[in-house]
């Protein structure tokens, strides 16, 4: 695996090199002192991961990673920064999968790189990682986006209403969650639901992020995107009812089908595809995207295994089971009855089906 670190300060690169030597890394790693030098080295040998400082002369980290995305979209992109002006934050969020505040712990950084590489190894086809790597924004449902903009422009709007609406759209929710779980805002704590994410970020940051996320489906895809948003909202609400809480289950159910917002995964060629672990491709790509964007691993794992919960190794009916049931019922499919029987909850299925009808009625009001 090829990993490149880019920083105009030699002492920073020396510190990373010492950490790599101490961990006895099996990666092939290289160092560059500028964006221009990094691009020249990447032309010779592309990298699986590029970790770049943000503030560098002539070409900053966001510019460098923008070029990396254009030329080598499958490369995992991580940015390091010691400041967080709104404009810089939005530029970093657009091109980097993860961003880390300086000063940082070298061991934690290398662990992040290693986990990202492990996730990428799930895929047989590099075209999949290239497709994910090109994505910085996903299409929001136009009606939801318009209503959120109206609420954000109204000084009398309640944060509760804004949170409810943001939490109804997978594309907008995942970007808010990505920013809230970055090292700038998370303060070492994982954020599992949109309400806590908004509280952590503050309404000003949320407003900037939403207004910068004006990405819509093309006219032909609008009905598909809106249908996916509605079924995701139904699954999320049902998961909250089944688990009796707002949190990881509701968020994972909302994001379970987020990969289907990528046009590439809506083509017939990908329908029967699986990964090296025989995980259905849309579940694996969704989990990979969420992991790259720094969402908590319990959400990532629930998305990865929501189609085949028995393969997760989870013996009791927990988060993965709740997400599996909620997503299946919300999309008019039958849950894995053998799995439900093995985990001792098959007798709950009629109650959950009743909950589904009640939840649908509530959303239709």
TrEMBL record:
Residue ranges of domain HDOD in the record: 138-309
Domain Response regulatory: 2-117
SUPFAM superfamilies found in the cross-reference section: CheY-like, HD-domain/PDEase-like
Highest taxon, organism lineage: Bacteria
Keywords recorded for this protein, A-Z: Phosphoprotein
Gene Ontology biological process terms from the UniProt entry: phosphorelay signal transduction system
PTM annotation (4-aspartylphosphate): residues: 53
UniProt keyword Magnesium present: no
SMART domains reported for this sequence: REC (SM00448)
Keyword Transcription among record annotations: no
Name assigned to this protein: HD-like signal output (HDOD) protein
């Amino acid at each position: 695996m090829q990993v490149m670190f880019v920083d105009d300060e030699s002492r920073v690169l020396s510190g990373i090199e010492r950490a790599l030597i101490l961990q006895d890394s099996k990666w092939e790693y290289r160092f560059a002192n500028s964006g221009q030098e990094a691009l020249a080295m990447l032309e010779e040998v592309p990298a699986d991961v590029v970790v770049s400082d943000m503030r560098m002369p002539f070409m900053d980290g966001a510019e460098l990673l923008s070029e990396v995305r254009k030329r080598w979209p499958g490369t995992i992109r991580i940015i390091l920064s010691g400041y967080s002006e709104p404009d810089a934050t939005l530029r970093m969020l657009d091109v980097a999968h993860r961003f880390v505040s300086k000063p940082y712990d070298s061991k934690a950084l290398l662990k992040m790189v290693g986990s990202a590489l492990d996730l990428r190894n799930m895929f047989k086809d590099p075209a999949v990682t290239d497709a994910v790597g090109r994505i910085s924004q996903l299409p929001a449902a136009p009606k939801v986006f318009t209503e959120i903009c109206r609420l954000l422009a109204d000084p009398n709007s309640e944060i509760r209403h804004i949170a409810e609406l943001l939490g109804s759209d997978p594309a907008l929710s995942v970007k808010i969650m990505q920013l809230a779980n970055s090292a700038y805002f998370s303060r070492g704590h994982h954020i599992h639901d949109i309400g806590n994410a908004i509280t952590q970020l503050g309404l000003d940051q949320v407003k900037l992020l939403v207004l910068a996320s004006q990405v819509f489906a093309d006219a032909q895809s609008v009905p598909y995107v809106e249908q996916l948003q509605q079924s995701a909202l139904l699954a999320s609400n049902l998961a909250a009812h089944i688990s009796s809480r707002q949190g990881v289950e509701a968020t994972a159910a909302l994001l379970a089908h987020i990969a289907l917002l990528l046009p590439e995964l809506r083509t017939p060629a990908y329908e029967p595809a699986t990964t090296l672990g025989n995980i259905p491709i849309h579940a694996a790509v969704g989990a990979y995207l969420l992991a790259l964007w720094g969402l908590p691993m319990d959400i990532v794992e629930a998305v990865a295994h929501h189609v085949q919960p028995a393969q997760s190794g989870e013996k009791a009916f927990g988060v993965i089971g709740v997400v599996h049931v909620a997503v299946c019922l919300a999309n008019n499919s039958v849950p894995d009855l053998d799995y439900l029987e093995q985990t001792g909850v098959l007798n709950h299925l009629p109650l959950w089906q009743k909950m589904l009808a009640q939840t649908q009625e509530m959303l239709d009001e």
